[in-house]
Amino acid sequence: MRFAVVQFGGSNCDRDTWHVLQEVLGVDTDLVWYKEGLPRTCDAVVLPGGFSYGDYLRAGAIAARTPVMKDIHRHMQDGKLVLGICNGAQMSAEAGLVEGTFAINAYPKFLCRPVHLRVETIASPFTSRFREGEVIRLPIAHKEGRFIASPETLAALNREHRVAFRFCDGNATVSEATNHNGSLESVTGVLGQYRNVLALMPHPERASEEVLGSEDGRRIFESMIRHVEIEG
Amino acid sequence: MLDPEARAIRHALENLGFATEALSTARVFLVTMEAADRKEAEKRAAEMCERLLANPVIHRYEIEVMK
Q: What is the mean pLDDT of residues A136-144?
């Protein structure tokens, strides 16, 4: 089993993500500079957080048009896994790996805080190690994280259970009071059409060790590992 | 599409006594290129908007060809 974390100019969560995969979970993980292209042998790709290209134009927009995205598209079409975290989620949306987009927060400032999330589906390679409706805690750190989609897209995401996570309170109640960035229906993690891509604004790599106060994020990576073990 | 910056600007205009029905912010890209004629320039600019400059989920765009 091999994972790859793709680094772009301005990525800054690449090594944290590598640390969790390689050193906490013991998965062979390559740090891949985007110009090198994606190794064909990898089972799962993580697009890490950061500020690729200084968030010029729109967050993730420039990275989404780099040649390595063609490799990632092919990887996705082969049924392999892609996890986009924060800036990686923005790239995933810009590259069309998931529907909708992440716009500037309703209150247009950078938000950095731990939040509660409700697990909306466990029927995905990224969420199988949770319980449906479970409340988990992960940090967010973004200025452009407000999920927006057309009414048709949102309806399809709901109908096909492709919303993976919503902001909520500690009792699993979803309301505007806990909708930190003004996302449509508090959505902050969405699955692609074939469920093998997850675009996630919160940072699971920052909540994968007890010393960091939460280990909930680790289960996202563990879900991916289990999926690769089963599917080969 | 809610535009928080536009809302703040509109509010400031209100403070100055300017009543407005709506206000939105926009970005302008000035592109210089070689093209056979205006039509070709416009076609290529439209492609640029679709593929990179605009995000169809949240933006609309207009193209103006200048000399």
A: 97
Q: Minimal Cα–Cα distance from B67 to chain A, Å?
A: 25
Interface contact B1-A100, CB threshold 8 A: no
Q: Which residues pair with A200 in a beta bridge?
A: A85, A189
Across A129-151, b (16+ Cβ under 10 Å) vs e yields: bbeeeebbbbbbbbbbbbbbbee
For residue A232, pLDDT over 70 is answered with no
CB-CB under 8 Å, A94 with B1? no
Distance from CA of B40 to the nearest CA of A (A): 23
Q: What is the dihedral of CA A102, A178, A81, A7, to 10 degrees?
A: 60
Mean pLDDT of chain A: 97
Q: Does A104 touch chain B (CB under 8 A)?
A: yes
Question: Tell me, what's the pLDDT at A146?
Answer: 97
Domain boundaries, chain B: 1-27, 31-67
CA torsion, ordered A6, A146, A208, A230, to nearest 10 deg? -70
Q: What is the ipTM of this complex?
A: 0.79
Q: Tell me which of A116, A142, A180, A203 is the catalytic residue.
A: A203
Q: Are A47 and A88 in contact (CB under 8 A)?
A: yes
What superfamily does domain A2-231 belong to in CATH?
Answer: Class I glutamine amidotransferase (GATase) domain (3.40.50.880)
